Amino acid sequence: MDRSPPPKRSDFEALFEGHELAFRVYAKALLPSWDAVDDVIQTASLVMWRKMEELDSSDGFLPWGKVVVRFTALKHLRTQSRDPHVFDPELIEFLSQEEEERDGGRLDAQQQALTKCLSALGTEGRQLVLSPYQRHGYLTKLAEASGRTRNSLYKQIRRIRAKLEQCVVQQLGTAS
What we know:
The protein is mainly alpha-helical.
């Protein structure tokens, strides 16, 4: 059976990119969150880079990398379990459910109030207040088309936003 030659440091990037998804899936099976997976993969990639000479062939990169990911994930979990600021996963779940139940209705009411207030602006006002969130350069094109400066449009947007805020507060006050 032919074995591929030991990988060179210059091969690392291609090998890692070719197997990164497999490493991420493997790490997710061991870890509670995608943030933890990102941290572990980043650390594991540095370890792999430093220890690249230990690898006998390019063919063994995936299993070797999984070992590095496993040990890095276990170290991460040990570190997290000792951190006094990390809550028990059951407590986190309980708190998130409580927060969702408490705020769910409020968020719906805010969304309804904002929708009602936006529709009261009319097409031109709504287009202007939403323009900063459109594609890049949209506000500049709007300014050119209207013969106004971007700065004057920003000032108008600020005034419209203040009116929207007052409207939403008023809508929420009447809804209570």
